[in-house]
Amino acid sequence: MADLKLDFLVIPTYNTLTLAVADSSIYPTDPPEVISPTIEITIPGFNTFIGDFVPNSFNVYTSSILGITDIDCNQPLPDGVYTIKYSVAPAYDNYVVKSILRVERLLEKFDNAFLKLDLMECDNAIKTQSSVTLNTINFFIQGAIASANNCAEFEANKLYIKADSMLDTFLKNDCGCSGNNYQLNFY
After folding, report:
1. Could you state, in order of their start, the residue ranges of all structural domains in the chain?
2. How far is the C-alpha of 95 from the C-alpha of 5, rounded, in Å?
3. Contact assessment for residue 156 and residue 83, using Cβ atoms and an 8 Å cutoff
4. Are 133 and 125 in contact (CB under 8 A)?
5. Cα separation of 143 and 137, whole Å?
6. 24 with 57: CB under 8 angstroms?
């Protein structure tokens, strides 16, 4: 297996229930003749999942597949830093490891905050302030992802927590829009 180059991509599913890992390896034969393709996924707050990995394929994992919940009882996967290792036998020299920051739940909360903002009814000052707040939150989310991609897990967690806290505050406090300003002054 001299020409073997293992690699994978974590593909966004835009779904809190799934984690998708696509094989992007280079194999010396087509179809690949690999022995014991295995994936290990370290899930934040849970045990490490070890299972089969289908080469040259798109592998999708749910909470029940990963052993977090009972079979066919899928729940949202936790956000946080995931460590993923893909290996083939002999595993001691044929593997690739990556860490990613999963933020699907936080992004879902961000989307809900954005949709809560009624841009057609808010007066300009409130609309501007809410936009600035949401842009700041998005900046923290992107900073958390960038930090995790550069092995700065502590900073990634700090930025994630800040974004989550700001979203909670934003969602708790309505944007102040009643629609009255628009109806009285512009309709």
Report:
1. 8-102, 105-186
2. 9
3. no
4. no
5. 10
6. no
Distances (CA, A) of 2 to 6, 26, 106, 132: 11, 11, 42, 53
Q: Model-level pTM?
A: 0.80
pLDDT, tens digit, 9 for 90 and up, residues 42-77: 999 999 999 999 999 999 999 999 999 998 889 999
pLDDT tens track for 72-91: 889 999 999 999 999 998 76
Look-up: residue for tokens 């300003």?
181
CA-closest candidate to residue 40, choices 89, 6, 82: 82
Beta bridge partner(s), residue 9: 22
**CATH number given to 8-102:** 2.60.40
Q: What residue type is assigned to position 74 of the chain? A: N
